[in-house]
Design brief:
This protein has 207 residues and is mostly beta strands. Helices cover 0% and strands 71% of the residues. The chain has a ten-stranded antiparallel β-sheet, with no helix packed on it.
Length: 207
């Protein structure tokens, strides 16, 4: 049994961030309990902020514009161990090219006045960060037909250096009438050793 999917997303924050991502996946299920697949991604992003004019982190701030372009390939898989327990894993390798140039001085938006290379990185803004490598391992426990619990760990290598480690627990709760709620809590540790606790709440509708 084969299945293919394509997903496109766009993130914008005024003139501070414009990010376009395209992802494709092909899955193969040789048996009812095993699923394996390959992934491919492409990113084209632009961010604006400031850097110290002397490059040392002090002194006058210079407005800059950074472009990130690249693609990635990876593999993923899942195994159903019991009717209630499924384990899964994924790994991804990305190749990005980054260019930084001086931007117009009237730049605005969220990153205006904020050092471009020193933004706090956590699992909350992980989808906006350029990752050279990413690894994920998790398990899903189906409590009943309407509730599933999920626990996963992630290890990422950042394109600008350092790493991001995350642990997350989330649930999928059938709310009826085609709706599913997905609350989550987690903790991540960024490249400077800073820790972030976070909570998420998502909702999806199927028809």
């Amino acid at each position: 049994h084969w299945q293919a999917s394509v997903n496109a997303s766009q993130r914008r924050d005024s003139s501070a961030l414009r990010q376009n991502d395209l992802a494709a996946a092909v899955d193969w299920r040789p048996t009812d309990s095993v699923n394996v697949g390959v992934d491919a991604t492409h990113r084209n992003a632009r961010a604006r902020g400031t850097l110290a004019a002397n490059g040392s982190g002090s002194g006058a701030a210079m407005p800059v514009e950074q472009h990130v372009r690249g693609h990635g390939v990876g593999v993923h898989g899942a195994v159903v161990l019991t009717p209630r327990l499924t384990v899964y894993g994924a790994t991804m390798r990305n190749h990005y090219r980054t260019t930084t140039a001086q931007a117009p001085s009237n730049d605005g938006g969220l990153l205006a006045g904020v050092p471009l290379r020193q933004r706090r990185v956590s699992a909350v803004n992980r989808d906006e960060v350029a990752l050279d490598r990413s690894h994920q391992l998790g398990a899903t426990w189906r409590v009943n037909d309407g509730v599933a619990l999920n626990a996963e760990v992630q290890q990422d290598r950042l394109h600008d250096g350092g790493s991001l480690r995350s642990v997350q627990v989330k649930a999928a709760i059938a709310a009826g009438a085609g709706w599913t709620l997905a609350p989550a809590i987690g903790r991540s540790r960024g490249r400077q050793g800073e820790s972030t606790n976070y909570g998420l709440l998502g909702a999806s509708y199927a028809w």
